[in-house]
């Protein structure tokens, strides 16, 4: 099918939930993708922080091919080796003792909310149902995850949402303490507010939050869906802040492009998920788990990719700051950790994103629409960055003329 036909049929048959750009992508390799007309793009969005190893990484492709030929799906009533391998890698490289597999970040957050509630009910013998979340946060679009998302624009038309959710300013541990009641169950936070605009908290923030949660015997849930799997130069972003959560959620980069989500928890908490309390038909699917095993093995191998992410991030941010000096009337701020980078403009950024796409660079928006999000594959090289910066420079110049 030609691009025009694909776009027309998509607009006709799919529910109109996305404002798609008029580009039909056909193939990808590394940090590059090509559309059906053969045009090449540098992909600095990477499926919104999903393709941590780039497009079609050899080890992941081979793992998926082998697994598809061996076993595609069975029920969680039985054991499978890929699921066990993946759980072992995650547990050995995190704070957690147990893991539950699902299919997406939203599912992982839904499960985390359930786990927190049932654990607190079992522990205290009474229903502690309130959650404290951050303003400007994003945790998903199903009812539970949407209820703890601190952006009203996502709530409209879906009220009433889950009761008992309180929102406090991000980066304010004292506000969390003031919001706690005898009904508080857990605090749910992103280590870095990604969808909200790439906001990084103060260095001591999470230490204070951890202390508050311990003081009042409430749980700390960290949503690492976008920050996990090496995105910030650590396997998990909580490592930057020298604390451990009680529950953590993962998705996006975990499968290297194959859909998978996970809930990780400490032993005592995980035991609250007894048989019949939670389940997922496709969770821990052998193919998805095989892809995730290959992804994690590559990310963790000799620690090289994590170190590389931190080094290449400095180079990328240095180049972006040079553009900020060149366009001080346009670029307000540059922020982020690792390869989770936000460039906030003093205007709506959509026209810049479109202009970059025309010139062969894929980037995204975050926050209120003034923030450009760069989440390239962790394997991006200096030459790729130089080319991306050159395109970004030209786009800024043309839009602001």
Radius of gyration: 21 Å
Order of helices and strands: HEEEHHHEHEHEHEHEEEHHHEEHEEEH
- The dominant shape is globular
CATH class of the largest domain: Alpha Beta
Number of strands: 15
Number of domains: 2
Uncertain stretches? none
- What share of residues are in beta strands? 15-25%
Helix-strand makeup class: alpha/beta
Main beta-sheet strand count, sense and barrel state: 7 strands, mixed
Mean pLDDT: 97
Based on the coordinates given, report the CATH architecture of the largest domain: 3-Layer(aba) Sandwich
Protein architecture, described:
- It is found in: Cytoplasm.
- Keywords: Amino-acid biosynthesis, Aminotransferase, Arginine biosynthesis, Cytoplasm, Pyridoxal phosphate, Transferase.
- Pathway: Amino-acid biosynthesis; L-arginine biosynthesis; N(2)-acetyl-L-ornithine from L-glutamate: step 4/4.
- The protein is α/β, with parallel strands linked by helices and 401 residues long.
- It has 2 domains: 3-56 and 304-400, Alpha-Beta Complex (Aspartate Aminotransferase, domain 1), CATH 3.90.1150.10; 58-302, Type I PLP-dependent aspartate aminotransferase-like (Major domain) (Aspartate Aminotransferase, domain 2), CATH 3.40.640.
- The protein is built from 13 helices and 15 strands.
- The protein has helices at 3-13, 46-49, 58-70, 81-92, 105-124, 143-147, 173-179, 205-216, 267-270, 286-300, 304-326, 350-358, 382-400, and strands spanning 25-29, 32-35, 40-43, 98-102, 130-134, 165-168, 184-189, 219-223, 247-250, 261-265, 331-337, 340-345, 361-362, 364-366, 371-374.
- Strands 4-10-9-8-7-5-6 form a 7-stranded mixed β-sheet, sandwiched between helices.
- Helix 12 (350-358) crosses helix 13 (382-400).
- The mean pLDDT is 97.
